[in-house]
Design a protein that fits this description.
Chain A contains no helices and eleven strands. Chain A has strands at residues 5-7, 10-13, 19-24, 31-37, 44-50, 53-56, 65-68, 75-79, 88-95, 103-104, 108-112. Chain B has no helices and twelve strands. In chain B, 35% of the residues are buried. The chains are: A mainly beta, B mainly beta.
Chain lengths: 113, 113
């Protein structure tokens, strides 16, 4: 069964260091989302791609976060420098097109120490 | 901006009983989509049920059904014949025509045997 793949599953990094997360969506899915989920809260949309183009990054802290999806397939989310408040689960999701079911990966649990 | 509110941080239900989870949203759009997602303790989000705003008929999926009140901007989830495996975080989500998918804060459902 096709799945959204994310790596790494867990990441511990020191504050002020750089960290990157990778997401491989389900093949053929044009829409890709990155969410940040703080424990006990709902996912917060960071960035949404349609193919290789950014559709929405209004909630992305652009001074330290960047996201790319160069060939419209897999995607990378980077944080530089990481801060203690960035500790959270980072979820990637993809959908065939907008307004269809979004499939989620298992997430990357980031701890900044 | 669209917002999604889940006013019940926690809910509890007896096995085999029925429970209703509440969700309200705010939008100025007329066409949109609403979803309920389930996030079990393993944290991979899965879709429970989907409702198109232009459809008056409430969506149903086996034991899961919704009560969609468009004028009131309300979208509640009813789980009938609750099972132990239904225990999870449940998130209400709104998606606009552009595909921007935003989530509520979640309701943690526990099922008592």
């Amino acid at each position: 069964e096709a799945e959204v793949a994310q790596s790494p599953r867990y990441k511990i990094t020191e504050k002020s260091q750089a960290v990157a997360f990778w997401c491989d969506p389900i093949s053929g899915h044009a829409t890709l989302y990155w969410y940040r989920q703080i424990l006990g809260q709902g996912p917060e949309l960071l960035v949404q791609f349609q193919d290789e183009s950014v559709v929405d990054d209004s909630q992305l802290p652009k001074d330290r976060f960047s996201a790319e999806r160069l060939k419209g397939v897999d995607s990378t989310l980077k944080i530089q420098p990481a801060e203690l408040g960035d500790s959270a689960m980072y979820l990637c999701a993809s959908s065939l097109t907008s307004n269809t079911e979004a499939f989620f990966g298992q997430g990357t649990r980031l701890t900044v120490v | 901006a669209q917002t999604v509110t889940q006013s019940q941080p926690e809910m509890s239900v007896q096995e085999a009983e029925t429970v209703t989870l509440s969700c309200t949203y705010d939008t100025s759009e007329s066409d949109y989509y609403l979803f309920w997602y389930k996030q079990p303790p393993s944290r991979q989000m899965i879709l429970v049920i989907r409702q198109e705003a232009y459809k008056q008929q409430n969506a149903t999926e086996n034991r899961f059904s919704v009560n969609f009140q468009k004028a009131a901007k309300s979208f509640s989830l009813k789980i009938s014949d609750s099972q132990l495996g239904d225990a999870a975080m449940y998130f209400c989500a709104y998606e606009n025509q552009g595909g921007k998918l935003i989530f509520g804060q979640g309701t943690e459902l526990s099922v008592k045997p």
